[in-house]
Amino acid sequence: MFRKILIANRGEIALRVQRACRELGIHTVAVHSTADAEAMHVRLADESVCIGPPPTKDSYLNTHAILSAASITGADAIHPGYGFLSENAGFADMVEAHGLTFIGPSADHIRIMGDKIAAKTAMASLGVPLVAGSDGEVADFEDARAVADRIGYPVLIKAAAGGGGRGMRAAASADALEEAWTAARGEARAAFGNEAVYIEKYLDKPRHIELQILADNAGHVVHFGERDCSLQRRHQKVLEEAGSPAISAAERDALGATATDALRKLGYRNAGTLEFLYQDGQFAFIEMNTRLQVEHPVTEMVCGVDLVREQIRVASGLPLGYEQAAIRFTGHAIECRVNAEHPVTFMPTPGRVTAFHPPGGLGVRVDSALYAGYVVPPFYDSMIAKLIVHAPTRPEAIARLRRALDEFAVVGIETTLPLHRRIVDEPSFQAGSFNIHWLEHFVSSGR
Ligand code: ADP
């Protein structure tokens, strides 16, 4: 087992990883930018190292500074959290080249899954069903037109290097194709420095269902069931649940068998999430995330597992130590992402939090690095807290969520808490009848 882990991240996820380390008796090293000197992840770590000024390229993405920090402090492994360097294959290679362990999959697997075209090709060859679309990259507009004619409109043009919902444009008809093509490629070039795109059938009413998997270094692969992340705004998740109100235990088992079989054949290790769109009883793979996800707590609550602890254990070379049959699903969990954003305009609202009162009680968990007096910096992601509830049934989880949202107070800055309060009161949400487009309509209807 590791003695000391450097956590190459900030905010709630840095704290989340620290908590798992503490319980395993592992020392922690925090890294931080000058803007985060007063941050909770720095205060609670055993050691901390300042790695640069506020811009992420100079601090949380500064691989040389982070590796120097690991070397100075004598860390023997690095946990990347999510975002930042978590899906950077070059960084994973550098970590290993320095004789440290990267807590995640191999650089090769990160590289394959980071290119969504390569990911789809790999998954298709392993028997995982895909969304209908182009056969790989579409290099020029004439090809795009031919693919769209073949699969039928509406279509979605997507960046091969995409992430965070960027570099994605839908075209409802042939007339709209050229504009979508130019916009998607332009955004892909600007955001990822890579204008390669591919085309998928644009599904009109899918749910986003993803499967959490975990593999050890000896080829044992298990899954921890699905999460329903259909409530999205601008292709970004807002509220997630485990399990999905739309799929049966038999569907979960079948999807789990296909996915774990594919990853076993791939030789995958550590945690990963396969993302699918689900429509008309069919699952279609869209991408794989080779890291811990923001929404991992809902899975932890229904499975009674600490996924970060499991990531650390398998990265240290320990076997999983349990079979699929040992993983049981109990009750229902829901997570709300609380952002420092105006609840109607979604403009970021950095600034000083004058009072912070998180909810508590049975089945309530808050993952957050906030405290009264903390100044939310303007440089980073706007998510400031995750509220997670767990209860025996979905209706009870919703009642608990409403109660917890009522207790939750963040004073001094606007947050998206009021949006979540409106969502839980919506009959369609309560009935579990929504798809990936539902929240967008709900927000624009001004309800
Ligand atoms: P990113 O890596 O940017 O998050 P994804 O491929 O995971 O991109 O897609 C993000 C979201 O975009 C999905 O959860 C879904 O809501 C929507 N989306 C992606 N592909 C399709 C599609 N073919 N049809 C309809 N919606 C899609």
Q: Would you kindly provide a written description of the structure presented here, covering whatever features stand out?
A:
This protein has 447 residues and is of the alpha+beta class. The protein has helices spanning 11-24, 40-43, 63-73, 89-97, 107-114, 116-125, 141-151, 177-192, 249-266, 296-303, 307-315, 394-407, 417-424, 427-431, 438-444; strands spanning 4-7, 27-33, 47-52, 77-79, 101-102, 155-159, 168-171, 197-201, 207-215, 221-233, 236-242, 270-279, 282-289, 332-339, 351-352, 355-357, 364-368, 375-376, 383-391, 409-411. The protein folds into three domains: 4-103, 3-Layer(aba) Sandwich (Rossmann fold), CATH 3.40.50.20; 132-201, 2-Layer Sandwich (Dna Ligase, domain 1); 207-445, D-amino Acid Aminotransferase, Chain A, domain 1 (2-Layer Sandwich), CATH 3.30.470. It contains 15 helices and 20 strands. The strands form five sheets. Strands 13-12-9-10-11-14-19-17 form an eight-stranded antiparallel sheet, with helices on both faces. A five-stranded parallel sheet has the order 3-2-1-4-5. The chain has a three-stranded antiparallel sheet with strand order 7-6-8, covered by helices on one side. A hairpin with a 2-residue loop joins strand 10 (221-233) and strand 11. Helix 4 (89-97) packs antiparallel against helix 5. The protein is globular and about 60 Å long. Bound molecules: adenosine-5'-diphosphate. Adenosine-5'-diphosphate (ADP) binds at residues 131, 156, 162-165, 200-203, 206, 208, 232, 235, 275, 277, 286-287, 436.
